[in-house]
Amino acid sequence: MKGRLEDRRLLTGQGKYTADWNFPNQAYAVFLRSDRAHAEIVSIDTAAALKAPGVLAVLTGKDIAEAGYKSIPTNLGVKDRFGEALKKPPRPVLAQGKVRHVGECVACIVAESQAAAQDAAELIEVEYRELPAVTVARDALQPGAPQLHAELAGNLSFDWVAGDEAATEAAFRSAARVVKLALDNQRMVGNPMEPRACTATYDAATQKYALYACTQGTAGMRGQLVYTMGVPDDKIDVIAEDVGGGFGVRFNMYPEYSAVLLAAKKTGRPVKWTGSRSEVFLSDEQGRDVASTSELALDASGKFLALRFSYVADLGAYLAPTGPFINTQGVVACLTGVYEIPAACARVQLAVTNKSPSAAYRGAGRPVMSYMIERLVDEAAVELGIDPAELRRRNLVTKEKFPYKAANGITYDCGDFEGVLADALKASDWAGFPARRAESKTHGKLLGRGMATYIEASGGGFAPSDQVELRFSSEGTVTMYAVSHSHGQGHETSYAQIVSAVTGVPMENFRLRNGDPAVRLVGNATGGSRSLLGVGSVMQLAAKQVVEKGLALASKDLEAAAADIEFTDGAYRIKGTDRSVTLIALAKKYAGTPQSLDVKTEGRFGVTFPNGCHVAEVEIEPETGIAEIVKFTAVDDAGNIVNHQIVEGQMQGGITQGAGQVFGEHAVYDPDTGQLLSGSFMDYFMPRAGLVGGLAIHEHPVPTASNPLGAKGVGEAGVSGSLPALMNAVLDALREGGVTHFDMPATPDRIWRALRDAKAG
């Protein structure tokens, strides 16, 4: 296949993104946002704004409270180390009493035009009483730190231990060697191509709302809105067609969505809000922001005995719906990586600070754990003087031990970690590196090599099952319905391939619909590398049910017993004859009748574990600090692959996102004022095509039995492997210049300063 089904529509401007939704007589919303990180709201005067030309309404926190809206929901399925539940301070749709981060919504202005609403926003007078801000999670947990919420003593929302502390402590006491490493995993801004936006409508006659928004899954977002607004589930529709990128930051509802829905009800008109790129930086959920200390216990032969982690995750000013889950269970799902380690534990603290709320960012916790483990293993290799690949090989879970139950109780269903490592060593020419390093040195440059052998958990989800529906038209087209939303992954193509392979219906006959209000389905949002193995598997089940239904119709059409009919290549044929009828012909004939081939079905499949080995080579110019990725080799086990082109694209994107974090991306807040200092692309590095040089992507599939497709998922693979591999390569190069410790981001200035300081002793 040369292209995806989506490509012609999207490349010719026929897509429909959130800002493309327009309705007759619609009004426009603009949000007044806090210009300070922490302050009490003394008063809000909206009188002048309400009198401004074209203004229809101005909503504040008082209107939200009068509407009976609850706090935006969040939850966590585990108790803390004292047996207590997650502490959840309230998060209002519009600020009430205080503001806690720059960019928090204070008022929603609705007017005849966006310009009129923007002009009116500047007329609102807000009197603040300034409060001290805290922007570093560990500082927020210290005695005397500024307190964000009365309900959250010490700014600590959750204090949890995963794994077995006692067994881990015992293993450390018996260890011949302990390696320790402190790391900062900096805060990131997701920055999808499409800035956040929405349009809301309200039908007073039916008391029904509709929200047109960019989302990774309509069902989950609708559930969050239903809870916050206190309305029945059947009174809100969430609709989306094309979505320009997700990365996890389009998973949850946002305060703006509920505010615009209320504005539509109060004004009796559709209300549209289109966010700016500046608003993305200030108010979209952010990611990572984890400070950790990791420890590895080894015996005298270099065998791993135990792992111990302690980390503080910065959740920002409020708990986003998935923020606590991502930074606890999402991180520690694969607590021991690909290694056979008898004991492990992690102490996790979730803190609040005066920054934008954080939740999922590509990998949803997995790259955080991968980074901690793989940086630690490389540090151990350096301290022990062992080849990093050899140290890993000695400690991998071997093939005959699958299914393998890890120290934290998670069972890896299948894998071939040794085979993946061997492939990566060969493909990257691991043995030839010393010669390449020597050649680089003749040019006055430092060449470093880094490896990461990662694993991640895919296939989980919050919904009880995934439902899909297939509907056939009299023209022979097939519309596929699902909840999981495509925002660049090529779902339309992959699902069509799966259904086409079973039914024989040509690929060009398919169209995917997500978030259609006329088709209410249960299902999970897109995320966690689960859509193909979860929804794709249900699509295959549905396709088989279509073929089964078609057999009864073919029997009638061919006037033959069902037992005498076989189905091959999209047609039903009487065995041993040339009499046949195609499935598509039957679909056309019976479309719209009670005998149609339409099918609705559901399924839920187990978690599985994609894994891989990435090897990077990075060359640094000491005089300028400029680092260049000169070679990157990725070998990944994604299970069975439906579309190799899409998998390669996902890998390229994920690897590049890892490189973006390693070499520049960083959401920087002023420690005193809480102002975002990197609030535009003038100050925030954005990875571009060509950043990853010498890229080679290889497959090492080990099919899983946990789903009918044998697929494992690939969405998080690139970043889970590239993040530690690239940083290990940077450190390997810097050690040649005397640098022993270095944290991301590896910008030219920071590299140059580290080398200068090392040279100065």
Characterise the protein shown here:
With 761 residues, the chain is of the alpha+beta class. The protein is built from 21 helices and 28 strands. The strands form seven sheets. A seven-stranded mixed β-sheet has the order 3-5-1-12-9-10-11, sandwiched between helices. A hairpin with a 5-residue loop joins strand 13 and strand 14. It is globular.
Summarize the biggest pleated sheet.
7 strands, mixed
How far apart lie the N and C ends? 58 Å
Backbone CA Rg: 27 Å
Strand proportion: 15-25%
Mean pLDDT, nearest integer?
A: 97
Task: Write a concise synopsis of the structure shown.
With 761 residues, the protein is of the alpha+beta class.
Topology:
Blueprint: H1 5-11, E1 27-33, E2 39-45, H2 47-51, E3 55-60, H3 61-66, E4 98-99, E5 105-111, H4 114-121, E6 125-130, H5 137-140, E7 156-163, H6 165-173, E8 177-189, E9 197-203, E10 208-213, H7 218-229, E11 236-239, H8 255-267, E12 271-274, H9 277-283, E13 286-298, E14 304-314, H10 323-326, H11 329-332, E15 343-351, H12 366-384, H13 388-395, E16 404-405, E17 411-412, H14 417-427, H15 433-442, E18 446-455, E19 466-472, E20 478-482, H16 491-503, E21 510-514, H17 531-558, E22 565-568, E23 571-574, E24 580-582, H18 583-590, E25 599-603, E26 611-621, E27 626-637, H19 644-663, E28 695-699, H20 717-735, H21 748-759
Characteristic terms for this protein:
alpha+beta; 21 helices; 761 residues; 28 strands; 5-stranded mixed beta sheet; single chain
